[in-house]
């Protein structure tokens, strides 16, 4: 038992980041802060948290929060309003546009960060009462191809397995998944199976991620060739006698056509190897491992989903599991590792434009069933616009009002710059948000509605294994912030739907959601939590994590179980059989060209989440990878004149980013990787959505975020430097900057071609004439520190790029500034001071702030030969484990660099 669990009262809640859905113990300190620990009783994590979850206590501050409703005035400025004024403006605006142009002229854009109750109310309002299905979500950018693939194969969006299967599998295949960084707690569970049971790990990814380095077999396939690989596998399984003929016969249709298509695409291991760009021996090894391992789980994530052929990729994977009957039994099955904390809950309430509610679609009987349940006056009768199409319709002026909740599409959508400009065309642009400023808000929102954040509101979320957990409030909502379900209900009431939106609490909403899932459900719909439809407020408050499917008699306090689907068929198609889906011959991805010769891959880093609104507040998370970067293979770096640690401009026809260069042979030649997290709030020019292709998958509508043709060129800056400040700074135009959270303020990393005198003048304007300064100015360098009441109040340094390192120790600078204050005078500009800016190392272990140099030293002169040795000497890797793969990589790198 850890120290936190001994204190009372603690609140059990759930992590707001990834789809693992870890349980969290929150201990408020009574001063607006909170201590965080993993919940040992939560089945998803059994007390473990990754670096992001562990740092949640650093992210509950109110800096930058939207605390009151705001309305844009005729002069363009935002001004505080009352809730009544703001809600009236939203309701009146939507009503006028609907009456004039019809319901399809309006839209909601939601988020996998919303709670199920929020999602349910928004979906109900749009699809049942406004009469349009123009309600989509950022989950469209995350795992929509899985939804489409599962619906095609299973007849429903059903995840067949449970996390327990990752403990029981003998072979775990990870496709397009950097689970070590993106699902860290689940990945550590996989690694325990490898260590304790000897499970084999195969990683399939164009990029050698930290996940790949843990694999027994790594297949660095060419981008976009996943379908070929799994077609080749299906052919191999058929020809080697690995099929489960009885299962295929009894529970599936379409096998013959699918195998024939697979043979056209990948007739044998040799053809598969050539198409995938991988050695034939490695392909054969993979095929044989799969053949020999009945207990196989194939986990897949954004590398599969975020593709213009994503749905076919999902079905190519599922086909192999159906053909071998490896589904729904312990230790086996296809397993979608969901990106967001409540993408699954959003799917359950029908938060996608091509779903209705409770996993129903737009078949006439389903429309009628939902209409009767809701007593809906104006049911949507056809699918709405999916995310990319929704924003393109805004761009064309066809959608005239949009309400965006809990997401930042001006950063995350393809062609983000154009989408941001399109938002400026709206007649009514409403944003429900936690923060006062982000790229979407700054695109010209007319109405800002302050939404309660994690820790301030309650509800439920569903994780990747269909486990529903409570998020609970442990802090009071600040200012006038309200839960999203309350805000949407208040607008619905103003639109004349008071009876249907008279929810008094999130428990009220949950009961209705649960009742709809069980309504006229005779077992032909997978999602049924009708057993919770009459849950009392008390039982809802104390609800334990509960996995569906659940029997009607399920009591809230029943322990979570390891339930699976489809071991004995029972699919959710009309004939209850699964469908093999012949994938299309892999359409060529958007071609590279002389102008755009590289492929851009995008993804997450270990310690940040989405656009960093929350995780970006944590200094220890910022210390891992602090600046936006592009990974380039050494061969390409040489060819394009790029230097490690320098800068590069990555461009497409849609836009450009300027990023730090990271040269690494973990990248495939011809491919670049850029993380998704930076926005105009956190960097000068690093919004990767500006680059991403708007091509979408024909079935799922999910955009191709992994293979956009781009070009790259070096960018030179004469000087580099940084500032530290307590408050946000407006950087001069033309400066490259990235904002980094530090203790008691923020740091801006700078690169500039303006000389020291410019920065001297800038510092005087910024710090003010009365500041007590320590300065050093010469022909190439300017350093200044300001001290107020004995503390470093701000500082700035610029120096020739060749002389400064990307991170600095400020101790010397602060001491010099303090000395200047002691002397009570400003140091003459020409006087050199005895302070220096000294390089420090990047942080590897976020929990114990252990840096790269310290780890290298432990390996090279401390005799550490394993992560266990490093843990014993430095503590690194002994808490959340998120850095273990990097520690292993450093050990290997140092052994190569310094052989004994
Ligand atoms: S793995 Fe990390 S980010 Fe994901 S839910 Fe768990 S603690 Fe949160």
User: What's the number of extended β-strand segments?
Assistant: 36
Tell me, what's the shape?
Answer: globular
Span between N and C termini? 42 Å
Give, in spatial order, the strands making up the sheet with the most strands: 5-4-16-15-14-6-7
Please characterize this protein's 3D structure.
With 900 residues, the chain is of the alpha/beta class. The protein contains 29 helices and 36 strands. Strands 5-4-16-15-14-6-7 form a 7-stranded mixed beta sheet, sandwiched between helices. Helix 8 packs across helix 12 and helix 11 (269-276) packs across helix 12. Residues 1-8, 555-561, 805-809 and 823-840 have low confidence and may be disordered. It binds iron/sulfur cluster.
Which helices and strands occur, and which strands form pairs?
Layout: E1 11-14, E2 23-28, E3 34-38, H1 51-54, E4 70-72, E5 78-80, H2 83-101, E6 106-110, H3 116-130, E7 135-137, H4 144-154, H5 164-168, E8 171-175, H6 179-182, H7 184-197, E9 200-204, E10 217-219, H8 226-239, H9 245-251, E11 252-253, H10 255-265, H11 269-276, H12 280-292, E12 296-300, H13 302-305, H14 310-323, E13 333-336, H15 343-349, H16 364-374, H17 387-396, E14 401-405, H18 409-412, H19 416-423, E15 428-433, E16 447-450, E17 459-462, E18 467-471, H20 484-494, H21 506-518, H22 537-541, E19 546-547, E20 578-579, E21 598-603, H23 619-622, E22 629-632, H24 634-640, E23 647-651, E24 656-663, E25 671-675, E26 708-715, E27 719-725, E28 736-742, E29 745-752, H25 756-767, E30 772-777, E31 782-788, E32 791-800, E33 808-809, H26 811-823, E34 838-839, E35 843-845, E36 850-851, H27 852-860, H28 867-874, H29 884-897
Parallel strand pairs: 6-7, 6-14, 8-9, 8-12, 9-10, 11-20, 12-13, 14-15, 15-16, 21-25, 22-24
Antiparallel strand pairs: 1-2, 2-3, 4-5, 4-16, 17-18, 18-19, 21-26, 22-25, 23-24, 23-26, 27-29, 27-32, 28-29, 30-31, 31-32, 33-34, 35-36
Helix pairs in contact: 2-20, 3-15, 3-20, 3-21, 4-14, 8-10, 8-11, 8-12, 8-14, 11-12, 17-19, 27-29
The structure holds iron/sulfur cluster.
